[in-house]
Backbone:
């Protein structure tokens, strides 16, 4: 009854070999284990861990001369209004978008799971992922600028209904830009979330649902007691992927409004990009360490939540 | 059997795994190529040895530059007796040299002066026996009266003669060519035809029709090669008159020989080598190519000599013997290349110079620096070259990455780079020692040097400067001292001249750009805070000027502005302000405008503006005067080609040498058209010749004319004069008095320009515009 748990995925069969297990067979298995592990471990060490250690080292030094500064860089960034704004906006974006995306995907996936044409509709949902960012940005500009289609439409609507006059809002130059960014993120990422939810739903053995129905469970009870508990594994994957994808929205924000966008869509990536251009590597290293620690903590927390739920 | 199959499968899998591992290892080794040694930058045959000097490739052509006092050089030829002749479209027609091109003596063509009075010279060619052929077109013919185009033959012995060519109507003969042995003479036309001239019979016959129009062509052995700027190079077999397919040279030309837009000239040429071979000369060097062969072998590396000078083009190149070449730039310069087998193929020392965009001043200084130091190679890296399509930000990030990796350039042009941040981070070296050494012999403008001095150190220094100026009737200038009184003046002029053009204002950005240099230096306070009050003042006064300029304009004036705006003018570029100033001078002379304002970038434009009030140029401009644009900053200037030396470089001495070369009198005197020199002697000599644009007219003398057609069909003319000694001194004094550098900050400028444009258009109020600017720049300042 636990959906795609480690047991069902066959992970319970995975035994990490130890020498203590004894014997030639164990040593061979250990060699095989290391043989498969080492390349990826070497890659991660070489391309992730060592560079990150270098970043940690740089966060305590000046950018060019490399003089030791102690925690001054950390002190500087925590007093830097741009950093604080970027952290606030990035956190706000993540907190708003991920629940919305997870929920939107689930709401679309439920009806799709019982439809015969699910395959075709799935493809339609995935279409935004295939759209080049430059095209999306062009559409944004056409729709959301002061003289864009949205204002034109609202103005026409106002004229027809007589309720309001000319609408001339610069959506990308005001606080509305944040919600434009959220909408764009949802539009682009709902598709794959739906696909992941669908995979989770369709993996639930039909017998469970039929048995529940025989026991008198209605549609809601089936969802509440059978489907949702079986989707915990998918939930973890979807949240992690959505979390990581939320950082990719920077491309759209950058292309539509440049390095210095409206302050509500000024994200951490804008700040890092600008610091890189201005050679503020010391501040950037300190900020990267902070962000890395927070991200690591968040992922660990999610994983713990997942493990505990199992 | 089953076991065998499993074993075979295992073996195959292992083999595949080893093969993949091997490939991975090989590819990783491939990534770690040796830097700095090996092949030269152009991929030519020349190689450089290892640090120990063993296996070091030796031998290279060394260049000697000779300036010659000639007109445009049309041909060079080595005569049978060893003498060299040079044909030029100037006072003599021909010069000769008996010492291999070191010195040249006039060797006037008989009757040359009379001939050029009546005819335009289209081409000239000499042959080894001393005979000369001149392709001419009579001025009467050019004016559409009697058509007379032909070849004037001056044989080494015997009588001169003129031979006509039976071309069709609208067909013009463009160029001439002797076969290598001098026995045959050909002429190429605009209709892709080659005529052969029978010098004995004094006739011309159609020899062949080609695929492309010849700009230059050469005949040697059994080949005829044609070069056309647009279509490349086509090679034909002379006997069969058939084209030889040669993709190698075609592709090479496409990739390496782009037309030089700066001088609107071709940048490459061809000339014969041996029996089956052809030379191609371009900015990248001299290449030898076997007809139909598979490669282009580099013989001379252009980056090590003057061939890479972006302001020049090779008019003609010849081989002067087994170990030498002689090339003529059309701009009165001869390059003699002699092979020296005793020096290394690549210079032993190297230096990296960097600029965000291609910079002619630096390029020319590098050529001179390398010429004076043959053992130093300067690699010039351009961050945003046209091919890469890289944005400024991407290029700066790439540069910063290289700097942090310890592979940054030794010498930098800081235009467009975060110069302040580089100084703050300790990335730039103090230039004082290099400037002190330079000033032992030469003197820089002290005002400029002082304006870049902080705590007795100088971290950056411009190669040139520009100043913002305006021109109008001197009576209008009374009481004009800042932006608000300038706006008062424009409003007063609007009242006096309803409907007429006041200050050519075809876009909001144009006006915002033009007034930035006299206000923007105050926009950021020392504490890193925005000076909102100064921005408010700037926007308010710009709006007043804009409104006054645009108020009640007649439709024809508006149409002129629209046409200018639609002609693809890059309004965000600073160059526009310069062309506005020159064009504005013409508009003042014609009475279309009352004021012109913008960035003065060179002495040529200064001479035009000073010519506005000359009597020959009519009533409208007769009382006009030129002055520094009034603004919140009274003495601002814009530095151009801001130089710095990397503090992390191990070659700071070499980089300092390059800095001194850029600031040397000779290099500075040739800065054109992007700014005024800051070397005192260089500036004096620059002002004398308008940056090399006019070396034949004295102070106050006539040197040209400008004209443009009005919408109503009338033509406005303007006679231009060299500045008088008084005017030259005034400019020198002005350049010696400015003290506040306007270091453009792209982020601040963009924010002001964007909000300012809306404000000028009436799309938002002043407060809203300021709020937008603040919102945008608050983040920038906070970073």
Residues:
């Amino acid at each position: 009854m636990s959906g795609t748990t480690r047991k069902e995925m066959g992970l319970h069969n995975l035994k990490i070999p130890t020498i203590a297990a004894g014997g030639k067979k164990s040593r061979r298995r250990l060699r095989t284990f290391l043989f498969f592990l080492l390349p990826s471990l070497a890659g991660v060490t070489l391309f992730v861990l060592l560079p990150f250690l270098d970043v940690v080292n740089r966060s305590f030094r000046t950018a060019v001369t490399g003089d030791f500064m102690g925690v001054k860089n950390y002190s500087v960034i925590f007093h830097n209004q741009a950093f604080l704004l970027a952290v606030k906006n990035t956190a706000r974006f993540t907190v708003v978008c991920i629940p919305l995306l997870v929920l939107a995907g689930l709401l679309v996936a439920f009806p799709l799971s019982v439809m015969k044409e699910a395959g075709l509709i799935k493809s339609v949902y995935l279409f935004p992922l295939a759209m080049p960012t430059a095209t999306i940005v062009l559409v944004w500009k056409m729709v959301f600028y002061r003289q864009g289609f949205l204002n034109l439409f609202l103005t026409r609507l106002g004229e027809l209904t007589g309720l309001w006059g000319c609408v001339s809002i610069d959506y990308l130059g005001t606080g509305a830009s944040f919600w434009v960014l959220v909408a764009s993120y949802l539009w682009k990422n709902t598709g794959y979330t739906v696909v992941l939810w669908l995979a989770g739903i369709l993996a639930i053995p039909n017998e469970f649902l039929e048995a529940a129905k025989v026991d008198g469970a209605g549609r809601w009870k089936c969802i509440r007691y059978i489907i949702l508990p079986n989707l915990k594994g998918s939930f973890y994957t979807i949240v992690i992927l959505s979390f990581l994808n939320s950082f990719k929205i920077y491309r759209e924000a950058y292309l539509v409004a440049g390095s210095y966008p409206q302050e509500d869509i000024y994200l951490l990536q804008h700040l890092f990009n600008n610091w890189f251009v201005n050679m503020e590597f010391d501040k950037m290293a300190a900020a990267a360490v902070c962000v890395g620690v927070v991200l690591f903590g968040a992922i660990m927390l999610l994983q713990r939540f997942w493990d505990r739920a199992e | 059997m089953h076991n065998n199959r499993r074993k075979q499968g295992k073996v195959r899998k292992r083999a595949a795994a080893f093969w993949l591992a091997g490939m991975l290892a090989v590819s990783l080794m491939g990534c770690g190529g040796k830097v700095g040694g090996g092949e030269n930058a152009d991929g030519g045959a020349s190689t450089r040895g290892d640090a120990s000097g063993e296996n070091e490739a030796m031998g290279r052509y060394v260049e000697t530059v000779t300036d010659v006092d000639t007109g445009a050089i049309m041909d060079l030829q080595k005569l049978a007796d060893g003498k060299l002749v040079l044909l030029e479209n100037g006072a003599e027609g021909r010069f000769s040299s008996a010492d291999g091109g070191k010195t040249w003596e006039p060797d006037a063509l008989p009757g040359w002066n009379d001939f050029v009075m009546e005819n335009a010279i289209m081409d000239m060619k000499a042959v080894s026996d001393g005979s000369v052929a001149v392709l001419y077109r009579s001025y009467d013919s050019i004016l559409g009266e009697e058509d007379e185009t032909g070849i004037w033959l001056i044989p080494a012995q015997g009588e001169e003669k003129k031979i006509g060519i039976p071309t069709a109507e609208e067909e013009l003969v463009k160029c001439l060519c002797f076969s290598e042995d001098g026995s045959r003479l050909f002429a190429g036309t605009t209709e892709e035809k080659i005529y052969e001239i029978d010098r004995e019979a004094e006739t011309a016959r159609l020899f062949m029709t080609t695929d492309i129009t010849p700009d230059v062509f050469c005949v040697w052995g059994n080949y005829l090669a044609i070069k056309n700027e647009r279509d490349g190079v086509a090679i034909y077999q002379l006997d069969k008159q058939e084209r030889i397919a040669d993709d190698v040279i075609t592709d090479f030309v496409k990739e390496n020989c782009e037309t030089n837009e700066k001088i609107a000239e071709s940048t490459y040429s061809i000339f014969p080598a041996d029996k089956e071979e052809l030379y191609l000369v371009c900015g990248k060097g001299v290449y030898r190519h076997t007809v139909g062969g598979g490669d282009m072998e580099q013989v001379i590396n252009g980056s090590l000599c003057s061939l890479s000078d972006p302001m020049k083009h090779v008019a003609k190149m010849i081989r002067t013997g087994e170990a030498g070449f002689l090339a003529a730039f059309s701009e009165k310069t001869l390059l003699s290349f002699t092979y020296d087998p005793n020096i290394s193929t690549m210079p032993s020392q190297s230096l990296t110079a960097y600029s965000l965009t291609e910079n002619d001043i630096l390029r020319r200084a590098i050529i001179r620096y390398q010429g004076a130091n043959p053992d130093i190679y300067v690699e010039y890296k351009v961050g945003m070259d046209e091919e890469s399509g890289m944005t400024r930000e991407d290029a700066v990030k790439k540069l910063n990455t290289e700097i942090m990796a310890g592979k940054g350039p030794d010498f930098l042009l800081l235009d467009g780079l975060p110069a302040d941040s580089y100084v703050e981070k300790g990335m730039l070296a103090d230039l004082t020692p290099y400037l002190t050494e330079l000033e032992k012999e030469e003197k820089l403008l002290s005002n400029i040097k002082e304006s870049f001095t902080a705590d007795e150190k100088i971290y950056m220094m411009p190669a040139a400067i520009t100043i913002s100026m305006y021109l109008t009737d001197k009576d209008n200038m009374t009481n004009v001292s800042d932006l608000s009184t300038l706006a008062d003046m424009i409003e007063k002029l609007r009242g006096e001249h309803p409907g007429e053009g006041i200050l050519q204002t075809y876009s909001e950005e144009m006006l915002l750009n033009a007034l930035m240099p006299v206000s923007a230096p105050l926009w950021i306070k020392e504490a890193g805070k925005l000076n909102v009050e100064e921005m408010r003042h700037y926007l308010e006064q710009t709006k007043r000027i804009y409104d006054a300029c645009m108020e009640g304009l007649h439709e024809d004036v508006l149409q002129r502005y629209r046409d200018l705006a639609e002609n693809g003018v890059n309004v965000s570029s600073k160059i526009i302000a310069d062309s506005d100033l020159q064009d504005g001078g013409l508009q003042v002379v014609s009475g279309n405008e009352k004021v012109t304002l913008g960035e003065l970038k060179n002495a040529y434009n200064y001479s035009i503006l000073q010519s506005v009030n000359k009597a020959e140029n009519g009533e409208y401009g007769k009382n006009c005067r030129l002055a520094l644009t009034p603004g919140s900053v009274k003495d601002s200037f814009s530095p151009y080609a801001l130089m710095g030396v990397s503090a992390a470089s191990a070659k700071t001495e070499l980089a300092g040498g390059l800095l001194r070369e850029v600031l040397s009198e000779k290099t500075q005197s040739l800065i054109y058209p992007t700014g005024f020199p800051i070397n005192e002697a260089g500036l004096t000599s620059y002002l004398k010749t308008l940056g090399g644009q006019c070396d034949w007219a004295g102070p106050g003398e006539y040197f040209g004319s400008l004209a443009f057609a009005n919408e109503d069909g009338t033509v406005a003319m303007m006679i231009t004069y060299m500045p008088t000694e008084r005017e030259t001194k005034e400019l020198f004094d002005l350049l010696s008095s400015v003290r506040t550098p306007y270091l453009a900050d792209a982020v601040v400028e963009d924010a002001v320009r964007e909000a300012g444009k809306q404000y000028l258009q009436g799309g938002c109020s002043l407060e809203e515009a300021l709020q937008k600017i603040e919102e945008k720049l608050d983040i920038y300042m906070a970073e």
